[in-house]
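Researcher: Hi, I'm a grad student and pretty new to this. My advisor asked me to get structures for two proteins we've been looking at. I'm not sure of the right format, so I'll just paste the first sequence and hope you can take it from there.
Model: That works fine. Here's the first sequence with its C-alpha cells right after it:
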Amino acid sequence: MTMKRQGTRPRAALDRNEWIQAAIEVLAEQGVQGMRIEVLAKDFGVTKGSFYWHFKDRQDLFDAVLQTWRDGRIRDIEKQSVAIPGSEQAQLLHLIDVYGATRNRKGISIELAVREWARRDAQAAAVVAQVDTWRLECTRKLFVALGVSEDEAKSRSLLLYAYVFGQSLMACDSYDPRVNDFKRWIAKLIVRQQHEAPNGQT
C-alpha cells in the first residue's frame, strides 16, 4: 500500500480510524512506547505523510487512542448494564460473566496496556478514572434497583469489579476441577438480594 496524491494535496490511503485502531493493536502488544509513527507507517506500507494528513503529531494520536478507548468502554458498560425492571440481578450476573471471561484476551491486553500507560501519564490516568467511575456508577444503579442501600450498592460495585478484573488475570483453571462452579457461586454471592442466602437457599 502506498500513499497516493491528488493534485498537490496528499490523499491518505488510510482513514483516521484505521490509524487509531492500528495504534491500539500496537499498544496492546508493545505498550505506549511502541506507538511510534514510523513503525505504524511501515506496518501499513505508507509514508509518514499519510499519518500527518490525519494527525498533527504523535500526541494527537495518543489523544485519539485514549478517547476511542474511553468512548468504547463507556458504550460497552452502558449496553451491558441495561436491564428491564425486575431483571437487574440477571443482568449483573451476565455482566460478571462477560467481563470476567478469560477468553477475551485481546480486550484484557488493551485494558492492561492502558492502565500501565496511566501509571506514567496524567492524561491517561484521568481517562482510566473516568471509565472506572462510569462502570461503578452503572452497576451501582443496578444494585440500588435490587433494593440495597446506596453505601452497600457502592461497596458491591467495587467488589464486583475487583473480582472480575482480578480473576480474569489469574490462571486458576488447574486450581480445582470445580473452578467454574466456584466462579458461579462467587458471582451469585456478589449480586444476591438481601433476603437470599449465599448458596441460593432461603
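Researcher: Oh nice, that was easy. Here's the second one.
Model: And its structure:
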Amino acid sequence: MKLQLIRNATLKLDYAGHTILVDPFLGAKDSLPSFAGRSPNPTVGLPVTIDEILAGVELVIVSHLHEDHFDDTAKHRVPKGLPIFCQPGDEEAIRAAGFREVTPLADKAHWQGLKLTRRDGSHGLGPVVQDMGPVIGFTLQAKGEPSVYWAGDTVYYPAIENTIRETKPDVIVTHSCGAKWNGDLIVMDAAQTIAVCEAAKGSIVVATHMEALDHATVTRSELRTAADAHGIPLTRLVIPGDGEVLTLIPPVV
C-alpha cells in the first residue's frame, strides 16, 4: 500500500492494485475565502499538478461536501465517469455536478476486491455540529493489504474509540490540525491525536489535514513535539508533508 498526502485531507492511495482518490480539494492557493479571518484558503498550493493527482485514479471517495474536501475545481477536473462513494444524502448534489456513478456508503460496499465500511464521525461536539453537518469516516480492507481506518473530519469521541477497539486497524488516518469554528474544536487537535495513538497501540497513525487552512490551530511541529513528550515515536505517529508518499505494509501474522 502506498499513501500519498496531497494537501489537507486529500489522499491518493495505491491499494490492492487500484488507485483511490479521497476528498479531492484541488483549487489553487487563496481560491477560497478565509474561515477564521486570517488568510484566504487554502494557505498553500498543491505540491504536484492536478494531472499528476488524477493520473491512474479509478475510484473517488467524498466524505462530505465542505469546500476543503470537494471543491469547484475538483467538480470540474475529476472525470465524470469515475465511480464515487459518498455519505448518504450527498449523492444528488454530486450527481447534479455531472458525475454519473455515485453510490452512498450507508453501511458496507464491495468494489473490485475492496471492502469499504462506513464509520461514524462527529464534526465537533454540541451545537457546532448543526453548523458543520454530518460526516463519515470509513475503513478499507483487501487481501494482502493493511487495514485502514480513515477517521475523517471528526473529533475524538466514543464512536472513534469504539471503532479502534472493534476493528484494530493497521493504519489510522486522522485529521489533526485542531481546526476551530467560532471557538469550537471541529477536528482532532494534538491531545486528541495522542489519545488515538494511546488507544491504538498496535496501529500506525498518519496525521493529515494540517497547515492548509486558516482556522487550524496545530502545526506539524507542534504535534510532533506533543507526541515526543508522550513517548510516541516517529514510527507510530507519522506526520507527512504535502506530496509525501508513505509505503505501508501489512503486519506479519
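Researcher: Is there anything I should tell my advisor about the second?
Model: You could mention this: The chain has seven helices and 16 strands.
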